[in-house]
Amino acid sequence: MNNFAQIIAALGPPPGGPWDIGDDPPLRVTYNPNPGGVPTLIFALNTGVHITIFRNSWDGVATIQDCTGGQVDVGPYCLHTTAGNERWFRQYEGSTWAWVTDCGTPTERYVKAFNAMMNTMNAYLGITARKQRRGEQPEGPDTAQVNRITIGTITSSNPTLWVNLLTLGQDSTDYTIATASPGSDFMYVNQFCSILSIKWLQAGRGTVPYGIDNFSDADKRVMAQTLIGYTGMDDQIAYAETQLGGVRRPLDVVARGVMDGTYPVGTNIWAGNDFHVIAIYLRSEKEYELYDSNTGLVTVLPRSGFKQAMQQLRNDAFVVA
């Protein structure tokens, strides 16, 4: 099974696209790196709809807010209307494929367009759909492959790990740790916030600013290898549980423990979403410290406002230790 980066590599030059695959008519494929968000691949015919593959829902499982305001696990395919803002996610549920939003099902014309695009995608890229459900471990990249990790120009506390698309599928794959993209052949992989938050809780408290520069080049490469092994948010949560000796908890439970004093002083909390992770330390009966690797700084906040703060940050994943 190809992961997201390998699909892009299979598309060939030019790096980053756009590409045309198939014929009569060709399917136009566009890559959107979406800095600060989730990278996507868009597959489009002139039919009023297109298919979007999100990196996080392809390589793992993502949760979105659907049209009713509820949360739903989605992946791997999203069918979008080009002119409007309708979208339907299609994934494997139980033993059958299903459209998983509460917005109903797309029209027959849209379904036919979806099937036509899927046929072309499978024929030219060999991307058989992933069967994804919450708790199911997706297939990852070939761990036997050698990774070459270079330390590039770092001017921020939470830099990015980039992969050189031209080296995918070779005996070794080139990665660079840098604040900005090293070049047009490189694609965003991940940032270091999930690991830096763990490191801050383990040993970094009291050090300001705290970030990637607190580590040797050898340690940076070890951290990068961990990022390369992630296939989604569930992997990051599991790693945090192992490293901190904690357990995953929902927001309501965590907020109650912080705000009513159930969680004692000294409690560590790893908190985040699909885009960013922070660390929290309960410093007193009334206050907590919040570490943000994007700035490398710590903010002291009242425990009484914890739930509102987490909602504003859109945090939906928590590990308490």
Protein described:
By secondary structure, the chain is an alpha+beta fold. The chain has three domains: 4-125, no CATH class; 146-228, no CATH class; 241-320. Helix content is 26%, strand content 31%. The chain contains eight helices and 19 strands. The chain has helices at 4-11, 55-59, 108-125, 193-204, 217-229, 233-244, 251-259, 306-312, and strands at 19-21, 27-32, 40-44, 49-54, 62-65, 71-74, 77-81, 87-93, 96-99, 146-151, 160-164, 172-178, 186-191, 247-249, 268-272, 277-282, 287-292, 297-302, 317-320. The strands form four sheets. The protein has a seven-stranded antiparallel β-sheet with strand order 1-2-3-4-7-8-9. A six-stranded antiparallel β-sheet has the order 14-19-15-16-17-18. The longest helix has 18 residues, at 108-125. The protein is globular.
Short account of what is shown:
β3 and β4 form a beta hairpin. Helices cover 26% and strands 31% of the residues. A seven-stranded antiparallel β-sheet has the order 1-2-3-4-7-8-9.
